[in-house]
């Protein structure tokens, strides 16, 4: 890196420079006119602090407690598909960055490294994210994750069908990459990215790689983000009964569904609109958190639009236990691999610590709504 990036937006610019347009658009883009995506960012910007003065903030910590464990910071690396398209062996690079920072890494069903490979080569606090493409396959994946030592299962419930992403449609984005004059030009004009992909081999949906026909069909279905759209509450109950560890449901966007998850014995939910990548015109998860966190006994996590450590302070003050990082850490990965992802975590952690001092709260456990201008 010639100029040291100082914030997530700097990493976004570097990612934009290194990646072909179609890959950057896949990472950066959202559903339809991208109003949900922009609402997520705008919602954080609209929240002001109510800083407390004359508080001793000379000794601070950044740790939070989740499921009876202490995490050094409130950040969790969100599950994201196709990380290998951003950086060769991107899943392992991200998992290693998370391990170095001591935070959980959530491996996506749509990863480009296998469940076992990530456990062996990265380790750390591993969580597994499940997309139910086919029920038999889902059972198999969950069993593999358990066997490989993944501690938490995260079920994503907001991709019953594929959201419409205009940028991807315009670009003809698909895996395997389609060779058209435009996509070839896009690749050759980004030679650092292209060489990495050639050296490492083009990304596959690694968890599904198998010579049997079922998996080939499942792989194709996942590529189209075509899940089992019949998966519903009684299936969640069955999953709850089958998975002995912590179970998180990701993609919840109403108080009613939060309560239903709690009644079924789910351990936590992630308030999420999938980074504005699925449904257009939905509330920002941080706004939903502000509405419902004081009515809920269950741990709430939140994602969507976190680009600053201060955003995590806002989320915790409004009742979140932790926040998930999607695009923020992927910009770092896309710009500079494990090093970039690790630096993103350092930047966010430093910003988080500075903000705690500036709002007058030396311990995240003491954050509450009094630190927010309501
Ligand atoms: C091509 C397979 O959650 C996203 C991801 C999609 C995961 C399936 C990708 O892009 O929002």
Account of the protein in words:
The structure is a single chain. The protein is of the alpha/beta class and 374 residues long. It has one domain (8-371): TIM Barrel (Alpha-Beta Barrel), CATH 3.20.20.70. 44% of the residues lie in helices and 11% in strands. It has helices spanning 8-18, 21-28, 35-45, 90-101, 115-121, 135-147, 166-171, 181-188, 191-200, 213-223, 233-242, 255-263, 285-292, 309-317, 327-359, and strands at residues 64-66, 69-71, 75-77, 105-107, 126-130, 152-156, 246-252, 268-271, 300-302, 322-325. Helix 1 runs antiparallel to helix 15 and helix 14 packs across helix 15. The radius of gyration is 20 Å and the shape is globular. The model has no long low-confidence stretch (mean pLDDT 95). The site of (2S)-2-hydroxyoctanoic acid has 9 residues, from helix 10.
Relevant terms:
globular; binds (2S)-2-hydroxyoctanoic acid; alpha/beta; 374 residues; single chain
Q: Supply the CATH superfamily name.
A: Aldolase class I
Overall outline? globular
Largest beta sheet, briefly? 8 strands, parallel
Q: Span from first to last CA? A: 41 Å
- Helicity range of the residues? 40-55%
Ligand set: (2S)-2-hydroxyoctanoic acid
* Total of helices: 15
Secondary-structure element order, as H and E?
A: HHHEEEHEHEHEHHHHHEHEHEHEH
What order do the strands of the largest sheet run in, or round the barrel if closed? 3-10-9-8-7-6-5-4
Structural class, by secondary structure, is alpha/beta
Low-confidence stretches: none
What is the C-level CATH assignment? Alpha Beta
Strand content range = 5-15%
């Amino acid at each position: 890196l010639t100029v040291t990036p100082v914030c997530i937006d700097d990493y976004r610019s570097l990612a934009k420079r290194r990646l072909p347009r179609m890959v950057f658009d896949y990472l950066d883009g959202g559903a339809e006119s991208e109003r949900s995506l922009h609402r997520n960012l705008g919602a954080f910007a609209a929240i002001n602090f109510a800083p407390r003065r004359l508080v001793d903030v000379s000794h601070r910590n950044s740790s939070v407690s989740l499921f009876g464990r202490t995490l050094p910071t409130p950040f969790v690396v969100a599950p994201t598909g196709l990380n290998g398209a951003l950086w060769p062996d991107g899943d392992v690079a991200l998992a290693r960055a998370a391990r170095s920072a001591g935070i959980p890494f959530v491996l996506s069903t749509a990863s480009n490294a296998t469940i076992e490979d990530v456990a062996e080569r990265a380790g750390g606090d591993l969580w597994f994210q499940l997309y139910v493409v086919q029920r038999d396959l889902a059972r198999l994946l969950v069993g593999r994750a358990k066997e490989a030592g993944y501690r938490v299962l995260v079920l994503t419930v907001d991709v019953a069908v594929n959201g419409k992403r205009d940028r991807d449609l315009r670009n003809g984005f698909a895996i395997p990459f389609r060779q058209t004059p435009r996509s070839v030009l896009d690749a050759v004009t980004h030679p650092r990215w292209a060489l990495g992909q050639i050296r490492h081999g083009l990304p596959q949906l690694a968890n599904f790689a198998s010579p049997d026909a079922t998996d080939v069909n499942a792989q194709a279905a996942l590529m189209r983000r075509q899940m089992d759209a019949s998966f519903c509450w009684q299936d969640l109950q069955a999953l709850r009964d089958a998975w002995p560890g912590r179970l998180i449901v990701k993609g919840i966007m109403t108080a009613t569904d939060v309560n239903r998850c709690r009644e079924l014995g789910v351990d936590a939910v992630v308030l999420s609109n999938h980074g504005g990548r699925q449904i257009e015109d939905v509330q920002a998860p941080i706004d939903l958190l502000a509405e419902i966190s004081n009515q809920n006994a269950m741990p709430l996590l939140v994602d969507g639009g976190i680009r600053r450590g201060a955003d995590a302070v806002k989320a915790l003050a409004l009742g979140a236990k932790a926040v998930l990082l999607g695009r923020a850490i992927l910009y770092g990965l896309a710009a500079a691999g494990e090093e970039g992802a690790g630096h993103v975590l350092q930047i966010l952690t430093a910003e988080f610590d500075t903000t705690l001092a500036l709002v007058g709260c030396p311990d995240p456990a003491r954050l509450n709504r009094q630190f927010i201008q309501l």
